Structure formats: C-alpha cells, structure tokens
Amino acid sequence: MIKFDSVVKKYPDGTVAVNGLDLVAPSGKITVFVGPSGCGKTTSLRMINRMIEPTSGTIWLDDQDTGKVDASTLRRGIGYVIQHAGLFPHRTIVDNIATVPLLMGWDKKKARARSLELMERVGLDPNFAKRYPAQLSGGQQQRVGVARALAADPPVMLMDEPFSAVDPVVRAELQDEFLRLQSELGKTIIFVTHDIDEAVKLGDQVAVLRVGGVLAQLATPAELLTDPVDDFVAGFVGRDRGYRALGFETGSLSPEPEQTIRMGDDAVAAGRAARDGWVLAVDDARRPLGWVRVAALSSGKAVASDLLHRGGTLAPVSGSLRGALDAALSSPSGRGVLVDEAGALVGTVTASEVVTRIEAQLAGRREAVSGG
Ligand SMILES: Nc1ncnc2c1ncn2[C@@H]1O[C@H](COP(=O)(O)OP(=O)(O)OP(=O)(O)O)[C@@H](O)[C@H]1O
C-alpha cells in the first residue's frame, strides 16, 4: 500500500505543484493519476521514490515512512518506467534490462538469464538481446523499459506516461500486454497518464487531479464515468461517457443459436441456413469468418472468401455489454456474433436484445440505490 498523507510540494520558485494530497493506492492494484497538463501527476509520482522531496506531509509505503528510509534502499524496491523508456543507448538490450540486478550485486550470468526470461515475459524476441536501443522500434523500447523495471522483482512500480510515445495501435497492444502481465504479477502500481481512456482501461482506481495538485475525485473507472463528482471531472472524463461505461457492464445475454455454412458450400445450403437473407460462414473450429448475403450467391456458385462481409466485430460471450452492442451494430446482418474463449461461435444477439439487458440492469441498480 502507498499512502499520501497531507502531501504538499512547493517548488523553490513558489509553484505549488501538489497541495494537500490524501490518497491510498492499495497493494496489488493499479492506481492511475490522470489530469490536465501541469496538475502535479509527475511530481506526485516522483515523491514516492524521493526523486522529489515533499515540502510537507508523509508518504507511507506499507508501514514505512518513506522520508525516513535511505533513498537508494527505497528505490531498489520500486521499479520506474518513463516515456521513451529512458534506456542507456550504449548498452545492449540484455544489459539494459539487467541494470538493477547488477547494481544489486547479482553475478552476470544470473542477471543475463533473468533478462532473457523477462524479454520473453514482455513479448520481446530473444534475438533482440544483443541489439542496442536505437535498433528497436518505439514500442519495443517501451517493452524493454517495462522489463528493466521488473528485473529485480520490485513490489511497487511507478510508471510515468510509459506508452505515450507510440502510435495508437502499438499503444493498445502494450496496454493489453501490461494488463496480462499485471494479472500474473499483482504489483502495486501507480500509473501516470493525461489520457482518460488509458486511465479507465488500466486503472483499478483512478485519481483525477486538477491544476494546483488537488485531488478532484478518486473512484473506480465505472464510477468515474457514471458519477463524476463535479463539472471539472465530467468535462475531463468527456463525451460518450454513458456509452463508455457499458465497457464495465457485463450481463448474461441469451444468444440465439445460429446456423452456419462453410467455405465451399453451395447456394442451396446457404439458402437453407440463412435467416433474413444472411448466413454466417465459419471455419472447421467454428470460428466466424464473415457474413454472406444469400442473394449474392448465384445458383451453382460456392461460398468463397470474396463474398464474405467482415465488418462485424466479434464479442466474447462473457465480455462487456458494450462489446456485444458493438458486435450487433457493426454486423451487416444486424445480428452480433458472440464467441467463446477459443473464438468459436456461441450464437448471436440483436442490438435491441442487448439494450433490453442494459436497461434491466440499470433499472435494477437504480432500484437498489433508491431502496437503500
Ligand atoms: N522543478 C520545478 N520548478 C518549478 N516548478 C516546477 C518544477 N517541476 C514542475 N513544476 C511545476 O509544477 C507543476 C506540476 O508539474 P508536473 O510535472 O508534476 O505536472 P504533470 O501533471 O505531470 O504535467 P504534464 O502532464 O504536463 O507532464 C507545473 O506547474 C510545473 O510547471
């Protein structure tokens, strides 16, 4: 657990970057600091490992007052990842990752073995081990940055805009990998971003700061989207928040079974399996390939890949209602395709079925609130 207790940071020129911050970041969870430029996110983060000293107040790491621990001892238990990864340009990837273990006196062989293990963990090709940072893409460098921070297996990780310098596709990949890694490692993480979408995707809890370093709201992502505490937070959380909150809403849908066809089937088979003029093609493992419009299949013609409409998104059956609604809205047949964990077809739902489910859940919640 990391606890901020009335923490203030006033820089020598009089700038108050953080003003009376009280906050608890629970162990094993991701706490995201988000807010507009200059609101004190980085200052707050760097006070935890004492790269910046608080002017007043206390930051606790479990039951230790961090102000009373030797700063380098403190930092050894805290991984630190920054934007652009901050790698040493003249050291190979394997040596970059081994930095902290070597500082801690591990022998070279053990430190390198640990580096290679971590490269695999963060999804880096082991062939990169002997390269230098400049020979890697931005996204790959960020993975090295994460691996380096994890090298000594610190219980706490501080991450300052670690994925901001890469394009949106790579960024989404890094976020997904990061969440997968965290589900295995369960570190106590403070993550700084100015991007509210990243905050609600990654955070177990999100702290919204306003300029002047004042905490505006500390909440779960779902609470933040559905119940912003004031106009500043509502504005910062942004538009479409009702819809985005559905990303945290799961609920049991009852998908309709769907008859399917295979590639190479003929127009007669397709016609028999079709509903409302559309039929879903699947592969041998029943993974959806795309929808076929039966009217486009002249008699005697077999189902081939050029006839597949691939626009519809697939939603995991145990996933969010937002995913299911998107699957229905994006499906050329109007029927959203739900799949199991292996990606195999479970059945389909329409948008109105998903909306009915959403309305029932929200009504149930309103009743519980007004009843209690
Ligand atoms: N060394 C310093 N001396 C004086 N003022 C500083 C110093 N470092 C930061 N500040 C000021 O403190 C405030 C908070 O800065 P900080 O870097 O913590 O904000 P931030 O929320 O991380 O911003 P950004 O999202 O732009 O990185 C800003 O007004 C900044 O100008």
Automatic annotation (TrEMBL):
Single GO term (MF): ATP binding
Keywords of this entry: ATP-binding, Nucleotide-binding, Transport
SUPFAM superfamilies tied to this protein: CBS-domain pair (SSF54631), P-loop containing nucleoside triphosphate hydrolases (SSF52540)
The keyword Nucleotide-binding is assigned to this record: yes
All copies of domain ABC transporter, residue ranges: 2-237
Family named by the database record: Belongs to the ABC transporter superfamily.
PANTHER family per the UniProt record, alphabetical: OSMOPROTECTANT IMPORT ATP-BINDING PROTEIN OSMV (PTHR43117)
Protein name: Osmoprotectant transport system ATP-binding protein
Organism of derivation: Kineosporia succinea
Lineage: Bacteria, Bacillati, Actinomycetota, Actinomycetes, Kineosporiales
